[in-house]
Specification:
- By secondary structure, the chain is an alpha+beta fold.
- The chain folds into 2 domains: 248 residues, CorA soluble domain-like (Beta Polymerase, domain 2); 59 residues, no CATH class.
- Helices cover 55% and strands 13% of the residues.
- Strands 2-1-3-7-6-5-4 form a 7-stranded mixed sheet, sandwiched between helices.
- Helix 1 runs antiparallel to helix 2.
- It starts with a strand and ends with a helix.
Protein backbone atom coordinates (compact mmCIF):
# COMPACT_ATOMS: atom_id res chain seq x y z
CA UNK A 1 0.00 0.00 0.00
CA UNK A 2 1.45 3.37 -1.04
CA UNK A 3 -0.93 5.77 0.74
CA UNK A 4 -2.47 5.26 4.16
CA UNK A 5 -4.79 8.00 5.36
CA UNK A 6 -6.52 7.95 8.74
CA UNK A 7 -8.82 10.62 10.12
CA UNK A 8 -8.67 10.58 13.92
CA UNK A 9 -11.73 11.89 15.74
CA UNK A 10 -11.79 13.15 19.33
CA UNK A 11 -14.97 11.13 19.89
CA UNK A 12 -13.26 7.90 18.93
CA UNK A 13 -14.82 7.69 15.48
CA UNK A 14 -11.51 7.07 13.68
CA UNK A 15 -11.70 5.90 10.11
CA UNK A 16 -9.48 5.05 7.18
CA UNK A 17 -10.23 7.32 4.23
CA UNK A 18 -9.59 7.34 0.50
CA UNK A 19 -7.98 10.65 -0.44
CA UNK A 20 -9.22 10.42 -3.99
CA UNK A 21 -12.87 9.75 -3.14
CA UNK A 22 -13.84 10.64 0.42
CA UNK A 23 -14.82 14.11 1.51
CA UNK A 24 -12.23 15.18 4.10
CA UNK A 25 -13.39 17.57 6.77
CA UNK A 26 -10.66 18.58 9.19
CA UNK A 27 -11.59 20.47 12.34
CA UNK A 28 -10.14 21.17 15.79
CA UNK A 29 -11.42 17.85 17.10
CA UNK A 30 -10.04 15.87 14.16
CA UNK A 31 -6.53 15.03 13.00
CA UNK A 32 -5.61 13.69 9.59
CA UNK A 33 -2.51 11.51 9.16
CA UNK A 34 -1.44 10.68 5.63
CA UNK A 35 1.48 8.26 5.27
CA UNK A 36 3.18 7.56 1.94
CA UNK A 37 5.81 4.85 1.57
CA UNK A 38 6.69 5.90 -1.97
CA UNK A 39 7.46 9.19 -3.71
CA UNK A 40 5.35 8.60 -6.77
CA UNK A 41 4.49 12.05 -8.21
CA UNK A 42 0.78 11.26 -8.55
CA UNK A 43 0.54 10.13 -4.92
CA UNK A 44 2.44 13.19 -3.70
CA UNK A 45 0.11 15.50 -5.63
CA UNK A 46 -2.94 13.67 -4.25
CA UNK A 47 -1.72 14.04 -0.65
CA UNK A 48 -0.78 17.69 -1.25
CA UNK A 49 -4.19 18.49 -2.70
CA UNK A 50 -5.95 16.90 0.27
CA UNK A 51 -4.42 19.43 2.70
CA UNK A 52 -3.73 22.32 0.33
CA UNK A 53 0.07 21.98 0.50
CA UNK A 54 1.96 24.88 -1.06
CA UNK A 55 4.05 24.27 -4.21
CA UNK A 56 7.26 24.83 -2.21
CA UNK A 57 6.27 22.04 0.14
CA UNK A 58 5.42 19.67 -2.71
CA UNK A 59 8.76 20.45 -4.34
CA UNK A 60 10.55 19.60 -1.11
CA UNK A 61 8.83 16.22 -0.96
CA UNK A 62 9.81 15.50 -4.57
CA UNK A 63 13.48 16.52 -4.40
CA UNK A 64 16.32 14.01 -4.43
CA UNK A 65 18.36 16.14 -2.01
CA UNK A 66 17.31 14.56 1.25
CA UNK A 67 19.56 16.25 3.82
CA UNK A 68 17.99 17.01 7.19
CA UNK A 69 16.47 20.49 7.39
CA UNK A 70 13.32 22.47 8.08
CA UNK A 71 11.15 24.42 5.66
CA UNK A 72 8.78 26.99 7.16
CA UNK A 73 5.76 27.86 5.05
CA UNK A 74 2.90 30.25 5.85
CA UNK A 75 0.47 27.52 6.90
CA UNK A 76 2.73 24.59 7.78
CA UNK A 77 6.23 23.27 8.42
CA UNK A 78 8.11 20.57 6.49
CA UNK A 79 10.76 18.56 8.36
CA UNK A 80 13.28 16.29 6.66
CA UNK A 81 14.93 13.86 9.08
CA UNK A 82 17.43 11.05 8.88
CA UNK A 83 16.27 7.73 10.32
CA UNK A 84 17.44 4.13 10.67
CA UNK A 85 15.74 0.81 11.23
CA UNK A 86 16.71 -0.63 14.64
CA UNK A 87 17.43 -4.12 13.28
CA UNK A 88 19.46 -3.03 10.26
CA UNK A 89 23.02 -4.32 10.82
CA UNK A 90 24.30 -1.92 8.17
CA UNK A 91 22.69 1.10 9.91
CA UNK A 92 21.74 2.50 6.51
CA UNK A 93 20.37 6.03 6.55
CA UNK A 94 16.70 6.40 5.69
CA UNK A 95 14.91 9.68 5.04
CA UNK A 96 11.48 10.77 6.17
CA UNK A 97 9.67 14.00 5.36
CA UNK A 98 7.06 15.22 7.84
CA UNK A 99 4.55 17.91 6.92
CA UNK A 100 2.89 19.59 9.92
CA UNK A 101 -0.16 21.73 9.32
CA UNK A 102 -3.21 22.70 11.30
CA UNK A 103 -4.78 19.39 12.34
CA UNK A 104 -2.98 17.35 9.73
CA UNK A 105 0.32 15.48 9.36
CA UNK A 106 1.85 13.96 6.22
CA UNK A 107 4.77 11.54 6.37
CA UNK A 108 6.70 10.50 3.25
CA UNK A 109 9.44 7.87 3.09
CA UNK A 110 10.82 5.24 0.71
CA UNK A 111 9.59 1.78 1.64
CA UNK A 112 8.52 0.64 5.08
CA UNK A 113 10.06 2.46 8.02
CA UNK A 114 10.14 0.70 11.40
CA UNK A 115 9.44 3.87 13.43
CA UNK A 116 6.31 4.67 11.41
CA UNK A 117 5.01 1.10 11.62
CA UNK A 118 5.65 0.97 15.36
CA UNK A 119 3.94 4.33 15.91
CA UNK A 120 0.91 3.19 13.97
CA UNK A 121 0.76 0.04 16.10
CA UNK A 122 1.16 2.01 19.34
CA UNK A 123 -1.75 4.34 18.64
CA UNK A 124 -4.15 1.94 16.96
CA UNK A 125 -6.24 1.50 20.13
CA UNK A 126 -6.09 5.14 21.24
CA UNK A 127 -9.57 6.65 20.98
CA UNK A 128 -8.89 10.37 21.45
CA UNK A 129 -6.10 11.18 19.07
CA UNK A 130 -8.33 13.77 17.44
CA UNK A 131 -7.64 16.02 20.43
CA UNK A 132 -3.95 16.19 19.57
CA UNK A 133 -2.50 19.02 17.53
CA UNK A 134 -0.02 18.35 14.73
CA UNK A 135 3.06 19.14 16.86
CA UNK A 136 2.06 16.78 19.66
CA UNK A 137 1.25 13.98 17.23
CA UNK A 138 4.54 14.44 15.40
CA UNK A 139 6.50 14.49 18.68
CA UNK A 140 5.49 10.88 19.29
CA UNK A 141 6.69 9.86 15.84
CA UNK A 142 10.01 11.72 16.19
CA UNK A 143 10.52 10.09 19.58
CA UNK A 144 10.31 6.65 17.97
CA UNK A 145 12.67 7.72 15.19
CA UNK A 146 15.23 8.67 17.84
CA UNK A 147 14.46 5.50 19.80
CA UNK A 148 15.56 3.47 16.76
CA UNK A 149 18.99 5.10 17.10
CA UNK A 150 19.10 4.15 20.79
CA UNK A 151 18.37 0.52 19.87
CA UNK A 152 21.17 0.58 17.31
CA UNK A 153 23.52 1.98 19.97
CA UNK A 154 22.53 -0.76 22.43
CA UNK A 155 23.20 -3.41 19.78
CA UNK A 156 26.62 -1.90 19.06
CA UNK A 157 27.48 -1.86 22.77
CA UNK A 158 26.59 -5.56 22.99
CA UNK A 159 28.86 -6.24 20.00
CA UNK A 160 31.65 -4.27 21.69
CA UNK A 161 31.27 -6.38 24.85
CA UNK A 162 31.74 -9.49 22.71
CA UNK A 163 34.66 -7.75 21.01
CA UNK A 164 36.42 -7.28 24.36
CA UNK A 165 36.31 -11.03 24.92
CA UNK A 166 37.70 -11.54 21.42
CA UNK A 167 40.54 -9.10 22.09
CA UNK A 168 42.12 -11.30 24.77
CA UNK A 169 42.22 -14.41 22.57
CA UNK A 170 45.58 -14.97 20.93
CA UNK A 171 44.10 -16.73 17.90
CA UNK A 172 41.47 -14.09 17.03
CA UNK A 173 43.64 -11.29 15.65
CA UNK A 174 42.21 -11.26 12.12
CA UNK A 175 38.63 -11.65 13.31
CA UNK A 176 39.05 -8.87 15.86
CA UNK A 177 40.40 -6.32 13.39
CA UNK A 178 37.73 -7.05 10.77
CA UNK A 179 35.02 -6.72 13.43
CA UNK A 180 36.46 -3.41 14.61
CA UNK A 181 36.35 -2.05 11.07
CA UNK A 182 32.71 -3.11 10.62
CA UNK A 183 31.65 -1.59 13.94
CA UNK A 184 33.55 1.61 13.22
CA UNK A 185 31.75 2.00 9.89
CA UNK A 186 28.43 1.28 11.58
CA UNK A 187 29.03 3.94 14.24
CA UNK A 188 30.08 6.44 11.56
CA UNK A 189 26.93 5.78 9.54
CA UNK A 190 24.76 6.22 12.62
CA UNK A 191 26.42 9.52 13.42
CA UNK A 192 26.03 10.79 9.85
CA UNK A 193 22.34 9.88 9.95
CA UNK A 194 21.57 11.40 13.36
CA UNK A 195 23.69 14.51 13.89
CA UNK A 196 22.30 16.50 10.90
CA UNK A 197 18.84 16.23 12.50
CA UNK A 198 19.93 19.07 14.78
CA UNK A 199 19.56 21.41 11.82
CA UNK A 200 15.93 20.38 11.40
CA UNK A 201 14.86 20.09 15.05
CA UNK A 202 16.80 22.85 16.83
CA UNK A 203 14.70 25.68 15.33
CA UNK A 204 11.65 24.21 17.09
CA UNK A 205 13.01 25.57 20.38
CA UNK A 206 13.73 29.07 19.12
CA UNK A 207 11.47 31.88 20.38
CA UNK A 208 10.28 32.74 16.87
CA UNK A 209 8.74 29.27 16.54
CA UNK A 210 6.36 30.07 19.39
CA UNK A 211 4.44 32.18 16.87
CA UNK A 212 3.27 28.96 15.18
CA UNK A 213 0.37 28.43 17.57
CA UNK A 214 -1.63 26.83 14.74
CA UNK A 215 0.64 23.77 14.93
CA UNK A 216 0.67 23.49 18.71
CA UNK A 217 3.61 23.80 21.11
CA UNK A 218 6.66 21.65 20.30
CA UNK A 219 7.46 18.92 22.78
CA UNK A 220 10.42 20.21 24.85
CA UNK A 221 11.94 16.76 25.27
CA UNK A 222 12.66 16.20 21.57
CA UNK A 223 15.96 18.07 21.45
CA UNK A 224 17.10 16.53 24.73
CA UNK A 225 16.41 13.04 23.38
CA UNK A 226 18.32 13.89 20.22
CA UNK A 227 21.33 15.12 22.21
CA UNK A 228 21.31 12.02 24.41
CA UNK A 229 21.29 9.83 21.31
CA UNK A 230 24.25 11.75 19.89
CA UNK A 231 26.07 11.36 23.22
CA UNK A 232 25.29 7.63 23.08
CA UNK A 233 26.92 7.35 19.65
CA UNK A 234 30.00 9.23 20.88
CA UNK A 235 30.17 6.92 23.90
CA UNK A 236 29.94 3.86 21.64
CA UNK A 237 32.83 5.20 19.59
CA UNK A 238 34.90 5.68 22.75
CA UNK A 239 34.08 2.13 23.85
CA UNK A 240 35.26 0.88 20.47
CA UNK A 241 38.53 2.78 20.88
CA UNK A 242 38.84 1.24 24.37
CA UNK A 243 38.42 -2.23 22.90
CA UNK A 244 41.20 -1.53 20.41
CA UNK A 245 43.43 -0.31 23.25
CA UNK A 246 42.67 -3.55 25.08
CA UNK A 247 43.67 -5.49 21.97
CA UNK A 248 46.93 -3.55 21.66
CA UNK A 249 47.66 -4.11 25.34
CA UNK A 250 47.03 -7.85 24.98
CA UNK A 251 49.23 -7.96 21.87
CA UNK A 252 52.02 -6.18 23.78
CA UNK A 253 51.66 -8.66 26.61
CA UNK A 254 51.94 -11.59 24.22
CA UNK A 255 55.05 -10.01 22.68
CA UNK A 256 56.58 -9.55 26.11
CA UNK A 257 55.84 -13.17 26.98
CA UNK A 258 57.56 -14.36 23.80
CA UNK A 259 60.56 -12.14 24.41
CA UNK A 260 60.79 -13.38 28.02
CA UNK A 261 60.92 -17.00 26.84
CA UNK A 262 63.50 -16.23 24.16
CA UNK A 263 65.64 -14.29 26.62
CA UNK A 264 65.47 -17.06 29.20
CA UNK A 265 66.37 -19.70 26.61
CA UNK A 266 69.32 -17.56 25.49
CA UNK A 267 70.47 -17.11 29.10
CA UNK A 268 70.28 -20.86 29.75
CA UNK A 269 72.14 -21.73 26.56
CA UNK A 270 74.84 -19.07 26.93
CA UNK A 271 77.05 -20.83 29.57
CA UNK A 272 76.93 -24.05 27.55
CA UNK A 273 77.91 -22.18 24.40
CA UNK A 274 80.83 -20.50 26.18
CA UNK A 275 82.03 -23.82 27.63
CA UNK A 276 81.70 -25.52 24.26
CA UNK A 277 83.71 -22.75 22.66
CA UNK A 278 86.44 -22.95 25.26
CA UNK A 279 86.63 -26.74 25.18
CA UNK A 280 86.78 -26.68 21.41
CA UNK A 281 90.04 -24.66 21.28
CA UNK A 282 93.02 -26.55 19.82
CA UNK A 283 95.43 -26.43 22.76
CA UNK A 284 97.26 -29.50 24.08
CA UNK A 285 96.42 -29.46 27.74
CA UNK A 286 96.33 -32.44 30.10
CA UNK A 287 92.67 -31.67 30.77
CA UNK A 288 91.71 -32.64 27.24
CA UNK A 289 93.53 -35.96 27.47
CA UNK A 290 91.15 -37.30 30.13
CA UNK A 291 88.03 -38.78 28.45
CA UNK A 292 86.04 -38.53 31.66
CA UNK A 293 86.35 -34.73 31.62
CA UNK A 294 83.78 -34.69 28.78
CA UNK A 295 81.05 -35.66 31.19
CA UNK A 296 82.38 -33.13 33.68
CA UNK A 297 81.85 -30.36 31.13
CA UNK A 298 78.38 -31.65 30.28
CA UNK A 299 77.55 -31.66 33.99
CA UNK A 300 78.80 -28.10 34.33
CA UNK A 301 76.56 -27.04 31.46
CA UNK A 302 73.55 -28.65 33.16
CA UNK A 303 74.49 -27.10 36.51
CA UNK A 304 74.64 -23.60 35.02
CA UNK A 305 71.25 -24.15 33.33
CA UNK A 306 69.64 -25.28 36.59
CA UNK A 307 71.24 -22.35 38.43
CA UNK A 308 69.85 -19.82 35.94
CA UNK A 309 66.38 -21.37 36.10
CA UNK A 310 66.53 -21.25 39.91
CA UNK A 311 67.46 -17.55 39.92
CA UNK A 312 64.69 -16.77 37.40
CA UNK A 313 62.16 -18.64 39.48
CA UNK A 314 63.31 -16.99 42.71
CA UNK A 315 62.92 -13.54 41.17
CA UNK A 316 59.57 -14.51 39.63
CA UNK A 317 60.68 -13.96 36.07
CA UNK A 318 58.93 -17.21 35.20
Amino acid sequence: MTIRAVLYDAKGDDRVIDLGRDDIRISDDRLLWVDLDDRTPDDLRLAAAAVGLEPEGLERLSRDDRRARILRLPDRVVLTLGAVDPDDREASRREIDIVLGRNHVITVHEGELAAVDEYREDIQHEQRLGNLDAASFTAGLIDLIITAFFRQIEAIERDIDALDELAVKASASGTFLSTVVLLRRRVARLRRALVPNREALSPLERPDFELRTDLGPPWPGTIQRLERAIDGIENARELLVGSFDLYLGRASQRTNDVMKVLTLVSAIALPGIVLAGVMGMNFKLPFFEEAGNFWLVIGAMGMFAVLILGVARRRRWI
